[in-house]
Amino acid sequence: MKIDTFKVEEWFNKYEKNSVYDLADTCVDPLTIDELLIIAGNKQKALEEIFSQKLNYGAIHGSQRLKRAIAGLYENQKPENITVTHGAIGANQLVMLSLIEPGDKVVSVVPTYQQHYSIPKSFEADVKMFFLSEENNWLPDLEQLEKNVGKDTKIICINNPNNPTGAVIPDEMILQIAHIAKQSDAYILCDEVYRGLNHDGNPFSASFADIYDKGISTGSMSKVFSLAGLRLGWIAANEKVIEEINRQREYNTISVGILDDYFAAIAIENKEKIIKRNLEKIKIGKEILLTWSKSEPQVKVITPNGGTTAFIRYNAPLSSTELCKKLLHETGVLLLPGETMELDKYLRIGYGNNFEQLKKALEIFSGFLKHI
Length: 372
Ligand SMILES: Cc1ncc(COP(=O)(O)O)c(C=O)c1O
Prior knowledge:
Layout: H1 7-15, E1 21-22, H2 33-40, H3 43-51, H4 64-71, E2 82-85, H5 87-99, E3 105-110, H6 115-122, E4 126-131, H7 142-148, E5 153-159, H8 171-183, E6 187-191, H9 208-211, E7 215-220, E8 233-236, H10 239-249, H11 258-269, H12 271-294, E9 299-301, E10 309-314, H13 320-331, E11 333-334, E12 336-337, E13 346-350, H14 355-370
Parallel strand pairs: 1-11, 3-4, 3-5, 5-6, 6-7
Antiparallel strand pairs: 2-8, 7-8, 9-10, 10-13, 12-13
Helix pairs in contact: 2-11, 4-11, 5-6, 5-10, 12-14
Pyridoxal-5'-phosphate (PLP) binds near residues 193 and 228.
């Protein structure tokens, strides 16, 4: 089946290795195994368990311990409502493989992770891209959304908190979106890979899986738990949907790695400590970014409220791809062009990592902006 090039991944593949200052990354400083076991406070016992572990296949849909921990991230989920996947990327793909057929009507809220429109397009679904706007603080205009969702819409794909904008949909609005979907009996696939990283108040937004029978939530260890190297994610949905997904999954996954499952369970059981660590880091990075933006007349930043990225508008006579290539070539600073996320004149910045580099790279970027 033909599929469009995944533009963000292509950008990383081509340019990440040439960068000196990587501001395109979306992870909070990744944890080492040592750091994880120290946080969990059970290092010796864990090491014994790891060393004596036979490297067989793991529990097929994820260990009971892990599924119980994942269910605990939600209000209304049980281990039977969860299936474990190869990252959130595997989770999103499995949901779409299971539910979307040629001709199905899909509404995808953009900007977002490209899977949410390119995979359905590759299945010859009829995909409508619903664009968020800066004027609306990157939140969906519900009247417009309602007009775009028809009686025959099969699924709405959305991402909350949003990559790249860092916008967090308020819980009341999540309920209203579910109401719009319900009128059409449509599924909602919400990519909640940044859920747990709201900057203020409760770090967890309401999940569509908890508040809507046809709501499907995907999540993972990559962002919230700083463990992207585990390649471990999940899907939470009603049991009938999970059964359908597991039928596809048999052809795709068998089980995730037994050590990935083990480390993920330990991390989620220690969620408060890891999330506190990550939110502290995000706060420092965000402060650096916002202070810089105030003194930089050529950019405008809508303050992100969740996740690890901001989507900044710039004023310069170059497309975002041209700007990013020139910036990288001349200075070694790597940003992500908005064009890879379907919106030119914007740039994505990740700010959860390496603050000295972040400060220095933003200074360099300001110098660059003066001369183009
Ligand atoms: C919105 C979104 N969904 C899914 C993914 C994939 O995450 P994972 O590493 O869990 O496969 C990413 C990674 O950047 C992402 O930003």
